[in-house]
Design a protein that fits this description.
The chain is an alpha/beta fold and 130 residues long. Strands 2-1-3-4-5 form a 5-stranded parallel beta sheet, with helices on both faces. 26% of the residues are buried.
Length: 130
């Protein structure tokens, strides 16, 4: 059974590209451009990983992270950002390791590698990128 990933990014081209890359590499991906709609449609225990853009209108990635964690404490979350790295500022607040912050642009291979590292942190079985 493929791992399920939710992508939330306010740029439609990023959502489409990530869905395609994830699907081509054995994942099942859903995406939303609207963070409020993503929160409304979010279902606990459905996703193995949630990838959030940090800078989004109406609800930024950190606020969305807090809301998602209220519904599903077990889901793994990482942040995708084109801006400066937020790890130093927010790692202590959210108790997240550095690998939970992915800077774009990123190669497809590196993205899949990082996603596997997060999803399978305690496992040696990875989904291989094509």
């Amino acid at each position: 059974m493929s791992k399920r990933i939710l992508v939330v990014d306010d740029e439609s081209d990023v959502c489409l590209a990530l869905e395609k890359i994830l699907d081509e590499n054995g994942f099942t991906a859903d995406s939303y451009e609207n963070p409020l709609l993503a929160l409304q449609k979010f279902k606990p225990d459905l996703y193995d990983l949630v990838i959030l853009d940090i800078k989004m209108p109406k609800l930024d990635g950190f606020a969305l992270y807090r809301e998602i964690k209220r519904f599903d404490k077990k889901v793994k979350v990482c942040f995708l950002t084109a801006g400066e790295m937020y790890y130093g500022v927010y790692s202590d607040i959210f108790s997240l390791p550095a690998n939970r912050f992915i800077r774009k642009p990123i190669s497809n291979e590196e993205l899949i590698k990082r996603i596997n590292e997060i999803i399978f942190e305690d496992s040696t079985i990875w989904i291989r990128s094509k």
